[in-house]
Structure formats: structure tokens, C-alpha cells
Amino acid sequence: MTRSFEDVARAAGLDLSAEPFAMIAGSSARCAAASIIAVFEALEAQPVPKLAPMTDWLLAGQGFPPGHPYRVAARPLAEAIEARDQPVPVNPYHNAHHTLEVLLNAHYLACRNDAVATRIRLSRREYGILCLAALIHDFEHDGTMNGAQRFRLERHSADLAAPYFVAAGIGAEDRAAIDAIVLATDPAGPNLYMKALHGQAFYDGPPPDPSLAFPELAPLAGDHRLLRMAALLNDADLLSSAGLSVDYAAKQSAKLGAEGGRILDCADMLRFLSHIVGGSFTTRAGRFFNLNMFLIKAMAELGQGHSDDGIDAPLIRP
Predict the structure, then answer these.
(1) Widest CA span of the chain, in angstroms?
(2) How far apart are CA 64 and CA 67, in angstroms?
(3) Domain ranges of the chain
(4) CA distance 279 to 277
(5) Fewer C-beta neighbours within 10 Å, C or N terminus of the chain?
């Protein structure tokens, strides 16, 4: 019998009415983060399969029937992502659990976007595209960086996922949207260009420097809905490392350092928050967690990679 996500949640003791499965009105950023971290840690301890059941549960929750191309494509993709990490993860950081976190972050931020956005709320199709992009954004990641070749890893992931999408009957327009969203997660310039496009489109920010433009991301400049989906995925990709808690950020940093063969310190965290995250999450939904990011940054500036009392900031209590 196929394991359902309800089975996984029951075994892990999860409350599917809490964050990150639902947006709780009135919850603070720190309370939401505590709930999200508890879910991530509980799921990390669970045996596979969990990514495929969770992805299917999320898509079913949006009303996609069992035979819908999104659900048909998602299951074998998720199974392949988890199979690669058996019996142990190939990469300490870019692995199936990271994908699970990004997918749940994307779901939560989509829910929050639809509650707080004043201009763009996702359609069911757009939610499905966002989920599929989150699922494949690091597909078969090799544990290295792009180096001088922009989009190398992101293009590799999108190309490997393409046959699954074609076989499931996902159309060319949806596949192109997924590709553009995934390419915008490249953290060494393209994501900041995407953030500048989003700031100009939605927050009256200055236009991006034309010399820093990426032709591959041109579809985002002409489609504000696609741009919003790319921004939500980028926020989802960075949230666990930059927006939950000091200790959870340190946990992600340790995993990433192990993947690169060195120990990352507070100076590395400050560079990450400045040059990769860009000092703020991109969307209004993501910026809900900016206070948590500021606490992480403040502790890093003090040379503290961990909180000293399990609360995130010694002088601030929930």
C-alpha cells in the first residue's frame, strides 16, 4: 500500500492545521518559525517515502485530481530525488530533505502571499507550477557551485526534469514557466537581478542595472505573475537558512560548509545575508520573516553563531 502523507504526519506527530501547512492569522514571525522548524526536524527523522507523499498531498489540496499532469509528473520526480539519497544523502545540504523544506516553504509563502498580497494572488495553475519548480530546483545537484558558468546547475536540473514533464503531458508553456522560475534561483547574480525586477514592479524600486541583466530571465521582466512565482521560490529557497532562527541558520550553514569542505563562520553568514539574500526577502510574504533575519544578522555581527538560551535573541522573548 502506498504511504500517504497523512500516514507520515501521523507518525511524525504533525499538526496539519499548523504552520507551514497553513497560514495562522496573528502568528508572529518567531512563532511561525518555531512551528516550521519543529515540522522540518520531525520530518527529517522520518523514513522515506515522504517527499512524494507530501508533494502529492499538497497538489491534491489545491484540487488537482489524481490523473492531473502535475501530480503524474511530481510522484516519479520526488521518488527519484529521494532514491538518490539512499542509503545516505549524496550531499550534506543539497539533498532530498532540502527539497522537502523548500517545497513546504513555497507552500507556506504561497498561502501567505494569497492572504496579504494586494496585486497578485496565485491561481491554482500557478500554485502547481510553483510546487513543481520547488521540487526540481536542485534536482541531481552535484554539491558544487556554478563558478563562472551562470545557470549551470539550474539548467541541469531543469533539463533532467523535462522528460518527466513531457511524459506526464505538461504543456510547453508550463514547462517554460518552470524553467524560468528555477533559473532565477541561481544565487550568484541572477537571483539579485530577479529581486531588482520584483522591486521595480511591485515596490516602485529603481530599475535593475542593464549591464547586470540576464537574457535567460527576460520572461520575468515581461510577466509580473511569473515574476511573483520566481520571487516566492527564491524566498522559499533561502528561508531555512536566513529567516527562521539563529540556531537553525547555523544548522544549515554547517551542512553547506560540510558540502564545500570547510567550516563556515559568522563572516560567511554576513556575506550570505548581504550578497545572496540581498538584505531582505523579496516578496511581502517572505518579508514577514525579515525580523528573524535581522536577529540572525545581529548575532552574526556579534560573532555568535548560536543563541545562548534557545530563544534566538537573548533580550527578546516571544
Answers:
(1) 55
(2) 8
(3) 5-230
(4) 6
(5) N
Neighbour-count burial for 238-256, b at 16+ CB within 10 Å, e otherwise: bbbbbbbbbbbbbbbbebb
CATH 1.10.1300.10 fits 5-230, yes or no: yes
Q: Which three cell numbers stand for residue 79?
A: 521518488
Closest CA to 138 of 113, 115, 155: 155
The identity of residue 153, as a single letter, is L
Alpha carbon distances (Å) from 98 to 117, 139, 310:
27, 11, 23
Residues 108-118 pLDDT 10s: 999 999 999 88
pTM, two decimals, is 0.95
Three cell numbers, residue 42: 520531525
Which range is least confidently modeled, 8-17, 142-151, 153-162?
142-151
What percentage of residues in the chain have a pLDDT greater than 70? 96
End-to-end CA separation in angstroms for the chain: 43
Cell 530525488, residue located: 81
Crossing angle of helices 246-260 and 29-44, in 10° steps, is 40
% helix, strand, coil for the chain, step of 5: 65, 0, 35
pLDDT tens profile 196-222: 999 999 999 999 999 889 999 999 999
DSSP string, 214-225: -GGGHHHHT-HH
> CA-CA distance, 39 to 117, in Å (whole number)?
25
